[in-house]
Structure formats: C-alpha cells, structure tokens
Write a structure and sequence with these properties.
The complex is a heterodimer of chains A (756) and B (348). Chain A has 756 residues and is α+β, with helices and mostly antiparallel strands. Chain A is built from 16 helices and 32 strands. In chain A, α7 runs parallel beside α15, α10 packs parallel to α11 and α14 packs across α15. The N terminus of chain A is likely disordered. Classes of the chains: A alpha+beta (756), B alpha+beta (348). The structure holds flavin-adenine dinucleotide (FAD) and iron/sulfur cluster. The site of iron/sulfur cluster has 14 residues of chain B, from α8.
Chain lengths: 756, 348
C-alpha cells in the first residue's frame, strides 16, 4: 500500500510510506512472552529496600495509635514512615494547583478518608519483613460512620463533570419535547462501582541521587507525573527521570501518578536508599481511582411516527468526600440521537471512598449502557425494530451543538454489522427464540461512540549519517501496542522502511508525548511524529536542493518525494539521492527536527469529532437456572484511519469484552456499613474468563477524515465498551422479556423473573 | 508475612507429632492456606508440609471393590484418571468445574476437603467474624449475603462450604481415613464438616494434629456410573465458586429409579445430602413431577439468611435439572465446560 501524505511544513515535499495500515504484530511481543520485558517492579538497584503500605481498614475517622515500636522491633524492619516521621514535602498534597492535581494521601495527617488508604509505610530489608511490620502496627481508630452508596448524603450539582464539561446541558425546550411525546419511556438504571484492575499493580522503584530522582514506574503520563513530583518535592521537573518502558495495563489508573507511588519516593528519601513499593491487589481498591456508581434516569419521548421528541438524561454519581471528579455519565446523550430537545444533568453525592477517576471510557461507558437500554425500551414501546428506530433518529449533525461531523460512517457500521449478524431475522417481541437445547435466545444492539480527542505531544526525529532514522518520543505503551503503531507512523514520516528506524520511547528524558488517555495517544503522538519527520525531510531537502553537486539541485520549487531512504525530484523521479549521501556531502553527522501534535482549534470549533460503531450481541439464557451466556458479538466501527488493523482489532475486542463484563459481571461489592470493599481480589471481582467470551467479529469501516488531524486518526481504545454493554443487556431482555436496569445483571433477577 | 517454622516431616507419624502442637497447621499445596496467611486470616506458627509424605499420592482399588484415593492426589490427576472418570463421572465433573486448571493441578484431595469458606467477611480481617474470632459477631448477617447459606445456618454463622468435589462425594457415601496420635480412624465425609450452631469456629470433627490420609469411595458408588451428574450454577462460566450446585446419582433398572443419591453445594456449611429427596425418588419412575417433589423435600428446611431467598428457588431447579440429566444418562465424555448448564452449547 502506498499512501501520500501532504507535509504540513512544506507542501512542496511528499513522503511515501507503506508501513501505516499494515497488520504488524507488536514489536515488544517476543520480549513480553519470553519474560524479558522488564516492568517497573522487576528492577532491583543495589542496596534496595522494600516498602509496604499499611492501609486503613476503616473508611472514615482517625488513626488513634500505631505500634511503631513493635513494627521496628521486627527483624529486618529499617524504618516506619508515619505522619509524625516522614520527609518534608514542598507542597501540600491537598493543594489543588490545577484540576488534574488530585488530592492524595501522603501521610499528611491521621485522618482516614476511605478504606485502603495509606496510614503508614514500613520499610525493610525484605518484602516479608515489611509486610509483617505493617501488620504489627496494629492501628487503633476513632471510627466515624461511613457514607456509602448513592443515597449516602446530601445531593448537589457538581461545578463541572469529566474534564471541564458543563454539568448541565440544555438543547431545545425539554418540557415541550416531553409534552409533545405520545409515548414516554421513563426508566432508571444503576451501574456499580468498578475498579481498573490492571494486571500489573502500581509499582515504583525510587532512587535519589542528591536532588535528582530516578524512578521506574508504570505511567500513562510521564510529563504529568514529573510535574507533580517536582512540585511535591520542590525540585525541577528536569531532575526527575522516569523510566516506564512497559505497562501491564493502565485503563486510566496510571494516567496520573498516585499517592502510593509518591509514598515510595518519600520512603526512599527518608531512608536514603533505593526503595521498591508495589501495591497488593487489594490495595488497588482505593487510592488509584475507580469508576463510581451511577443512578441514571432517562426519559425518552417519542411521537407516533417513532421520532424522538426529547431525551432527558439525569445522572447521579458519587465522588469522594475530599475531591472532585464527576463521571460525566449523562453526556453520552449529547451526540448520538437526533432529538429536538435534549437535556442532560448531573448531581453528586460525597461518599467515603477514594476519589473516582478516569476509567476506560469514563462517562461514555456508564452513560452508554443506560442510554442504549432506554433507546431499546423506547423502540419497543413504539413497536419499531431497534435498528430501524436508531436509523430513524440518526443524527446528521451533532444534536446538542448543531455542528456537522468531521466524518461519520455510522450508517455503514449499522449496515455491515447487522448484515454479518443476521439482524433482519430478529423477532420484535422478546422471548420468541429458543435454540435446539431449549435455551432462551435473545438479540440486542447498541450504538457505540467516543469523541476523537487530542492532547499535546512532541517528538524528535533524526536522520543519521548512515541514512537510518531515529524517532524519539516519551510515549506510553500500556500493552495496546502504541509503540508498534507509532513506529509505523515514524517510518512513514521519514520515508524509511521500518527496519531502518530506531524508535525510542518510554522515558521522561524524551520529548513529552502527553498523556496516553482519552483514546487520543496515537492521534496526538502520531501527529507529532508526522510533523517531526516533516521537519527533518524539509531540512534534508534544503541541503540537497541548494547543493549544485546534488542531483536534486534546484528542485526546491517542484519539491521532492521522500521514499525508501532517498529523496526524489518530484518532476523527475529518476533523479534522486540517498539521505546518507546528502548528509555525507554536507559533512553532517545527523539532521534532526522537532514536531508537535495537538488538536486544531479551528477545526474543532467547526466540526463535531467522534468515532462511531454498532454492536450486536446474542445471548442464551437457561430458562430455569437463569445463567446467562453471550454466544455471539459483532461490532463494526468507524474510527478514522486505521494505522495497524491487528492492534485496532484487539483494542476493539478488548473493549467489547469490557462491555460484556459491564453488563454481566463486573462490580465492586461494598459493605454498606463499613465502606470496605468485600471482593478486592481477582477471584471474586469478576471479569469474563475466556469461556465467557463468545466468538466475536470486528469490522472496521473505512473513514477518511481530513479534519481531525493530519493523519485522520480518531482512536479506538475506549469505544468498544460503549454500545457493547447495552447490546448485551438488550439481548438479555430480548431473550427473557425481563428488563434489568441494575447492572451487572444478577442471576437472582433471572431466577426470580423466569419462574413459572 | 509473619515468621513461622516450616517443617517437612518424612513420615506420617512425624507429621502428626509436628502438627500436634498449638499453632501448627498442615500445608498441602497451599492454594487456600497461603492466601489466608497473606491476608492475615490464618497465622500459624508452624507449617507442617505434608506434600512429600510417602504413599499418600496413590489411587488404589481395594479388595472389597472400594477405591482409595490418597490425600495428596492432585485434583487434576484424579479428574483425568480414565478409570476414575468412568466409575465416578459426577465426581470428575465436580472436580473439573472447580477453580482453574492451574489451581486444580496444584490442589490436593485433602486440601480440597478442608478448604475454608469464601465468606468475604471471614477474609476481611477488619470485619467481625465468629469463625475467626469466636464471640466477635457475624458481619455477614446484616451485610452482603446474597451468596450465603440457606440450610443449616445459625445466627452465629451463615457461611457456606465452597467445595464442589465434596458434593458428589457425600452423595456417594465417601469415607475419610484419618490418622492421629492415637492411631487411625474413619469418618463418613458427611460427618466431617460441622454445622455452625453456636461454635462456628469449630468447623470439622478433626482433632488437633489429625491428618487426613485418604478418601475412600465404597464399591457401591460405582453402581451409579451410568446416571450421575453434577450441575453448578456460577456467575461466570469458569473460575467461580458455585452459587448453588447439585450432584445427582441414580440407579435405574427396568425404567424405575431403584436408588437415588442427591447432594447440594453452596447452600450450607457442609456439603448437603438430602435423604428425604432420595427416599422420595427410590422406586419412582424418572419423571419431572417426582423430581420437583424431591427438590421441594430437599429444600423443605431452607430459609434465607439474608438477601438470598433466590437460592432456595434456584437450588430446587438445579435439583430438578441434575436429576433429569442424570436420568438421561451420563455423557460419554465430560464436556469442555464441566457442570455448566451450558455444556451442551457447541464449543462450550
Ligand atoms: C481463586 C480460587 C478459586 C477456587 N475455586 C474453587 C471452586 O470453584 N471450587 C472448589 O471446589 N474449590 C475452589 N477453590 C479452592 C481449591 O479447591 C482449594 O484451594 C484447594 O482444593 C485446596 O487444596 P490445597 O492442597 O492447596 O490445600 P491447602 O491450601 O494446602 O490446605 C487447605 C486446608 O486444608 C488443610 N489440610 C490440607 N491437607 C490436609 C490433610 N491431608 N489433612 C489435614 N488437613 C489438611 C490445611 O491445613 C488447610 O487448612 C478455589 C481456590 C482459589 C484460590
Ligand atoms: S458468616 Fe460465618 S464466616 Fe462469615 S462473617 Fe459470619 S461468622 Fe464469619
């Protein structure tokens, strides 16, 4: 495949590449499956000690006493860090310097804000000694009654939701819209608290050298972490060197450096030796964010023709008692369906948990399962097939803003996925289908959508004397294969084959690549890389075209084409010169160039930018025992340019499995009295096992989007969850006739609902 | 983790001596015990590793036709022993429906019998639990208890015994061979686990230092091989404990049930055998109405211990399902998703 990309710096020059679009396997795959990839916790600098956090088992109150002496007496224990004995910080961890500076517990007081909060850190020669030391602290508490759940306290309107979105959005006249409805679907849905549960726990190995700090830690945002740590310890960000080559998943929980990671740095400072701190699985249920529970009321008005007259989406969410993050659940209703009146609003309740944070599709996932369920209910109320209903109410422009979409191939997604699934044969009424074994069979669908977001990122490109290229960017590979995709873009950006390129990443010493989140990493860093490559090619072109000894001399106005490590004259491709020759003649060891990527505000103000998709699911339900199993899922997604189909497919599969998990499995169970999480482990916090994952089909629909960014990338990391969760839930209804509005769908509801 | 002594005795006698001290615990593969130790739930001062004891890893047919399974036989080895599967298919099905392949490869027969409850409050040392700390109270009683017991519970404890393996075993009259300071004794498996009553911490009839050396299935257990099933409802298709499970074994002759065995899992502090149901079935024709009657009889004494009334209904339906499937005949081979209601799905 050859593609032509216009240079943004100098449109006279073209680069040809064939790496983008190829289904390459992950470049780090072999390292990972052979165990050679070194994750943060695999590092073991000389003299290193182990730090173990002692966590609170109450959710609210104060620590009255800690038996520090007993812990210190335990053989191997070196020191115990407590509110009374810790290195001084330059900044209050509760200070709110910017909206992303979430408050963290760094032993600043004896106050307990949630269960599993750090109350001390034991530092020892061995992990075992530190672990036992933490037990020996035998804390005593002054307990206050914990506030748990969506009805725990006063309800208030949050100032903003998500990242600075308004908490309430009004489009059209909602009262008039609801009044105009001849049918009103009014339903309330509940979603549970969920935890990211990345396979790799948060971990840090911290080494101080004077006022320089070297840390190994998994990070989805190294520059953010650098800034935060710099502020807390009062050192320049440049003194902090973060090494984060591999992440065992993050899903948003490693986007911002967390309290426990900073405690590892403090511990190293306290004892003056390298320290490793790794969270236990159960300790990840608290200080590193979660998806908060939601209760969402949807009122959907329709007229006799099945046209929407109103969507009123109201979400109640919880946040912590001490900080502000508000899951923007109701925002899911802004973009998908064309209703003359749309009203979304949020209200919040403070509870005694850690602060909820971004978790894969924050707001989109919770909002989507409620919206897609409600749309399904509305379609049935109108007697219309759910797909037909969605097509009738297809949004040609973004409903709440009136902006045209930069691109939107959702119709094709619906059509292709429906066809592959065989949707046309679906009976309208529920409980109509059985398989040969007598299981109830149901088909459901949902629409997927996720905004095409970009952050700010940079890259540095180099062509060396030997003609090889180097691309440097502090990007983050959470396992999704970002480096592979970014290396593909890099090679094309320099007109090189992949094997002529060295891709460097995973360190904060490299150019800041922004945060790997919001499904915007490939788009952001890809644009930066694209521009960095352009800068280098332009410099090479300048050197060659100005040099009368070069075959390219004088081609400046016509421009050159970069391909296969050579520049060719655009008006006469037979005349060309290799990068190496150009540099050799100029006597240069290398040329380099910087590039950055960020959203174009002009395009953003003009267009609504979203990826879209359609997901269809089949479930089977045992008519007596109520057990549910998904048996088929088909998803079609339009997400701009696909850089690597293999990686994209696995992101979409993964997202669809999260959706399945959302509908049927995942839930943090919290004791309503103590606020402790009762299933803080992977045995009882259920996600689908392989046997639960049905055969899945992912179709990607081509989309050429000239507006989102120079490469036309929209991002695929989160969209797969949206649509899928609702599709599964709707399929359960279609199989059984039982509409469950509290997720995950529990077996008791099936058992009791299916009684004869 | 706390410091503890670790001993690896060479003989059963040495093991018993080493384990007879206060604070000592036997360590088999540790898939349950080590988790409890890491969570601070169990804090033994001495671990007596029994995994190298000679002679306890054999499966042998005895002269009286019974089968003797050493306490150290791994769950997976037993479940994949061709002769065992042929003769005790429901037991194999139960074994293969438990935990994950990795855990089954490690877990021992003795350890499986003696695994502790999965009650979340038992695991959470911040909660009150009469099992962990007699007299402390039971936080499950007014807590999250949708999966707790519906049979045989007391106000003192509403936990369930989580083993799948034990369910068909009690149905088939398995016997436990125990060795202690004073020699060897035997106990029907059904009598090994105690109901909580007012002493939930007293979980089994084992005395301090007693070691389970083997499990025995009597000769008559094979008579059910043609009609034996284990059905397990769980919240995902694998790697989850039973919400409720049932083992049904029938001896069918001339179109009538001559003898029936029925036990339930996930409903009580012990694997729950229902002789009432068995009596109703004996001599009857295999039909759904009779199964339902048997199911009602099996759950006659059930009452919810919390948000779990559905388990009483579900248990009855599982009984009916297990009996129906057992009557249809044991499948030629164990399905890829053993004991799952969905084992009949293609690819399942
Ligand atoms: C994540 C997870 C999921 C699981 N899912 C299931 C499931 O679905 N179904 C199921 O049935 N089980 C399940 N299990 C439990 C598993 O079957 C048990 O952990 C296992 O059988 C215990 O065997 P072990 O050899 O490791 O015992 P250990 O952990 O070594 O010992 C368990 C207990 O038995 C005692 N003990 C061991 N051997 C003897 C002996 N010979 N005599 C006297 N005392 C002895 C020990 O002192 C200890 O108290 C699961 C376990 C885990 C961790
Ligand atoms: S049910 Fe039993 S095991 Fe659970 S908390 Fe109560 S006493 Fe403890």
């Amino acid at each position: 495949m050859t593609l032509e990309i216009n240079l943004t710096r100098d449109p006279a020059h073209l680069r040809h590449g064939s790496n983008m679009g190829q289904p390459l396997t992950r470049t780090d795959g072999i390292l990972k499956v052979t165990g050679k990839a070194r994750y943060a916790a695999d590092n073991h600098p000389a003299g290193m000690l182990y730090a173990v956090i002692a966590t609170s088992c109450i959710a609210r109150g104060r620590v009255k006493s800690l038996d520090v002496a007993a812990a210190k007496r335990h053989p191997g224990v070196v020191d115990v860090m407590t509110p009374a004995h810790k290195p001084e910080l330059a900044e209050d961890p509760d200070a709110k310097g910017n909206p992303f500076a979430f408050r963290m517990e760094l032993l600043q007081s004896d106050e307990v804000r949630y269960a599993n909060q750090a109350i001390a850190v034991v530092i020892a020669e061995t992990l075992e000694a530190a672990t036992e030391g933490a037990v020996l602290l035998s804390p005593h508490y002054q307990v206050e009654i914990a506030r748990v759940g969506l009805d725990a306290g006063e309800v208030y309107a949050p100032p903003v939701v998500g990242i600075g979105n308004p908490a309430e959005v009004v489009h059209g006249d909602i009262d008039a819209g609801l009044a105009a409805a001849t049918k009103l679907t009014d339903a309330t849905y509940e979603t549970p608290a969920q935890y990211h549960n990345a396979m790799e726990p948060h971990a840090i190995v911290a080494v101080w050298d004077g006022d320089r700090l070297f840390i190994d830690t998994p990070s989805q945002g190294m520059a953010f972490a650098q800034m935060r740590v710099a502020g807390l310890f009062g050192i320049p960000p440049g003194n902090i060197h973060i090494n984060s080559p591999f992440l065992g998943g993050g899903f948003g929980s490693k986007g911002l450096i967390s309290g426990p990671q900073v405690l590892g740095i403090m511990a190293a400072k306290l004892v003056g030796r390298p320290v490793k701190l790794v969270l236990r699985r159960s300790q990840m249920y608290g200080p590193v964010g979660h998806r908060p529970p939601t209760r969402q009321r949807l009122r959907i008005g329709t007229d006799d023709a099945g046209m929407l007259t109103a969507i009123d989406h109201h979400a109640r969410i919880t946040t912590s008692s001490f900080d502000d993050f508000y899951e923007p659940a109701a925002d899911a209703s802004h973009t998908l369906y064309a209703a003359p009146a749309i009203h979304t609003a949020h209200e919040a309740v403070r509870v005694d948990t850690g602060t909820p944070l971004f978790m894969r599709a924050p707001g989109e996932a919770t909002g989507s399962i409620a919206l897609e369920s409600a749309i399904d209910e509305a379609a049935f109320a109108c007697g219309i097939d759910p797909l037909e209903f969605r097509l009738k109410n297809y949004a040609e422009v973004e409903p709440t803003t009136g902006k045209p979409f930069s691109s939107k191939a959702l119709r094709q997604c619906y059509a292709k996925a429906a066809e592959r699934f065989g949707w046309a044969r679906r009976p309208l009424a529920p409980k109509q289908m059985r398989d040969e074994n007598g299981y109830l069979v149901g088909w459901g669908m949902g629409t997927a959508t996720f905004p095409a977001i970009m952050f700010q990122g940079n890259a540095r490109a180099v062509i060396r004397a030997d003609g090889r290229g180097v691309m440097e960017t502090g990007a983050h590979d959470m396992g999704q294969g970002a480096w592979t995709a970014l290396a593909q873009i890099s090679a094309d950006s320099l007109g090189l084959d992949l094997d002529q390129l060295t891709f460097r990443s995973g360190s904060s010493d490299l150019p800041d690549a922004g945060i790997a989140g919001g499904s915007g990493h490939t788009a952001t860093v890809g644009a930066a890389i694209h521009n960095a490559g352009a800068a280098v090619i332009a410099k090479l072109a300048e050197l060659a075209t100005a040099d009368e000894r070069s075959p390219l001399f004088g081609a400046g106005n016509a421009g050159v084409i970069a391909r296969g490590g050579r520049l060719h004259r655009r008006d006469d491709e037979a005349r060309s010169e290799s990068y190496a020759d150009i540099l050799a003649r100029a006597g240069l060891a290398e040329v380099d160039g910087m590039g950055s990527g960020a959203a174009d505000p002009a395009a953003q103000s003009q267009y609504a930018m979203h990826a879209h998709g359609a997901v269809f699911a089949e479930v089977k339900v045992d008519p007596d025992l109520g057990q549910i199993r998904a048996t088929r899922m088909v998803g079609a997604f339009a997400a701009g340019r696909i850089i690597n189909p293999l990686l994209v497919q696995s992101q979409l599969y993964g997202g669809m499995i999260w959706g399945l998990s959302f509908a049927l499995h995942e839930e943090a169970v919290m004791d309503h009295r103590s606020g402790r999480i009762l299933n803080a482990n992977l045995a009882e916090y259920h996600v689908p096992v392989n046997a639960d994952v049905p055969p899945m089909d992912v179709i990607t629909v081509d989309e050429h989007d000239p507006h989102v960014n120079p490469l036309g990338i929209k991002g695929v990391g989160e969209i797969g969850i949206t649509g899928s969760a609702g599709a599964v839930a709707n399929a359960v209804w279609h199989a059984t006739g039982i509409r469950i509005r509290r997720f995950p769908i529990r077996i008791e509801e099936m058992v009791m609902g299916l009684g004869d | 983790m706390m410091n503890f002594d670790y001993v690896r005795p060479a003989s059963v006698a040495d093991a018993i001596a080493a384990a007879s001290e206060k604070g000592a615990a036997y360590l088999a593969s540790g898939t349950n015990l080590l988790d409890l130790m890491k969570g601070g739930v169990s804090r033994p001062s001495r671990l007596v590793d029994v995994t190298r004891l000679p002679g306890l890893d054999r499966i042998e047919r005895l002269a009286d036709g019974s089968l003797r399974i050493g306490a150290l036989v791994r769950n997976a080895d037993l479940a994949h022993d061709a002769e065992f599967v042929r003769n005790y298919p429901a037991v194999a099905e139960a074994l293969l429906s438990g935990a994950s392949a990795q855990l089954r490869n490690a877990a021992t027969v003795g350890g499986n019998l003696l695994q502790r409850t999965r009650c979340a409050y038992f695991y959470d040392i911040g909660s009150a639990c009469n099992k962990r700390w007699p007299g402390a109270g039971c936080d499950a009683l007014d807590g999250e208890n949708r999966l707790h017991a519906v049979l045989g519970w007391s106000e003192g404890c509403i936990a369930t015994h989580p083993s799948d393996f034990c369910v068909p075993l009690v149905a088939l009259d398995a016997v436990v061979e125990i060795e202690g300071k004073d020699g060897r004794r035997e106990l029907p498996l059904e009598a090994l686990h105690r109901l909580p009553g007012d002493a939930p911490a007293h979980e089994t009839e084992l005395e301090r230092g007693e070691l389970i050396v083997a499990l025995r299935l009597p000769a008559a257990a094979q008579n059910f091989a043609a009609h034996a099933r284990y059905i397990k409802v769980r919240e995902r298709t694998s790697y989850a404990f039973a919400v409720v499970s049932a083992a049904a074994a029938l001896r069918i002759e001339d179109g009538a049930i001559r003898e029936a065995r029925l036990a339930l899992g996930g409903v009580a502090a012990k694997p729950w055998r229902s002789r009432e149901a068995e009596q109703l079935l004996a001599g009857a024709a295999p039909d759904a109405a009779r199964y339902r009657e048997a199911a009602r009889a099996a759950l006659a004494g059930a009452k919810p211990s919390g948000d779990n009334a559905f388990k009483i209904e579900l248990a009855q339906r599982i009984v009916v399902r297990a009996l129906s499937l057992a009557a249809q005949g044991t499948p030629a081979r164990v399905a890829a998703l053993p004991a799952s209601p969905f084992s009949s799905l293609p690819g399942a």
